[in-house]
């Protein structure tokens, strides 16, 4: 109820105003919790690394494990997978893996929230690539925003098999122009030729049933590693009470530029999908794999014809001496 | 689509059967991840303990902080709070806290997933208690189930002010009989007098709009500390490959007893609510508190009459030199 929410929120504003606590103090303690959480992720990655290696070895022996897991994925992943994507994945996906690459590589001081998501494929009729890997860097912007940013990944589609209908290629093209530094059009904030082509394509495409593979085109905000490091340093100094230069607000040109980039984003929730894969699907893969079987066995009960050999809730094919406890609901 | 799910799940069963991997191997690696997760929780509690102390000091200065946070709670908490509960909470709740008591107490080897949730109240017209604290112990049962169990908490309602309409008192009564060991009725599995009274009350009560305070009556499965320790030891031995005695299946009497207890549970999702409070509301309290203000400020934009002094997205009362960055979306 909007009215109730409005009441509560103005009550909150009042409560804060009437207290001796500033919004900044609240934001600061939240930042401390955030830092602690980041440290915990670092420890978690270290602790679970050998387990993931062990698990990968096990799962590599189960045919179609990852395609079947994707079929069972929760809505925030499943909603993006079209029937034609399913066909490709089920027939050709051989492996999926997530790597917190900024801390597993040589530079152990990187951000543990950055993830590389890798899909491995067998020979297939859609594209040449054996591996499609997309990296997401956790960055902090000058205005205080923080989150995942990425780069588009080129897929070498076979003839007439481009599931994105050419959209991904136009994103790659516009990105290459942007990276070359020669992307300026005659008027700043106005689209250059590559961007115009992409814009035209987007306008002509029903973005509703877009292929999952357009996710490889997600870019997000443009925040370089240097800008990020500077923003983090400044924030830390401010919290220590040191004097820091005021953030320069974005110029109108810069804002227009950012608006343009955001309008050309072909997969706006690409960062959310990355988080869903890295933090839900990847750790919970076995749970999703077996959950389907548990549900199926339970629904079989409704149709039981009184066959006493059926053990309710256990898996088909399980021998008597392999009685395993039901998988616990994992605290996530 | 049920058909699609059924196809996938039988495909999964087939995939597993055709592999050299057993369901037990999958369950074992899941258990190893579970153990790692428990260790991480232990580290997280240690790391964040001083931050929660610091935060509590800050929040104690903001009047009505916790009642306002509860008003903003996500659906899985909010759905249980009735209007009459709201009135009580808003006028009298002074503090809410969560304590992983099994590891913060002297015995540091306890389970970090056990939580004590404490509500503190000012003098109010509903009940005498200044503090209502409910403990949840993380236990493992002989059949492999694991999760939170609790005990009912007595509320000293003032005359004609019992928001649970007498239900909670009957739960307490039945529990006391159960704990005394004198709970056996003439026939095992049949309800004793206290249980009959509770059963009758439940039947006569519309359980739909039940007061949030009936949550204090949640009990869950009966799994003692001894049974839990034994089950955990046995599980560890089995995973090491040692020979362990077969689990004794429940007798029919024991099953009837458990069914009876489950039917007398006045708040079946009490463990889920505990988890929502301990793992979402408690860590995210400031986020929930300020989120309402952010949403309110944004919706104010729709009705802007061109007043240039309104800063979009910033909080009312915020002075110019207190420009704080927007609270980041915390990775949960």
UniProtKB/TrEMBL annotation, chains A, B:
Belongs to the nucleosome assembly protein (NAP) family. Gene3D superfamilies: Nucleosome assembly protein. Residues 247-259, 298-312 have a biased composition (Acidic residues). It comes from Pseudogymnoascus verrucosus. It holds the Pfam family NAP. GO terms for biological process: nucleosome assembly. This is Nap family protein. Residues 232-259, 298-332 are annotated as: Disordered. One of its GO terms (cellular component) is nucleus. Residues 232-246 have a biased composition (Basic and acidic residues). InterPro entries: NAP-like_sf (IPR037231), NAP_family (IPR002164).
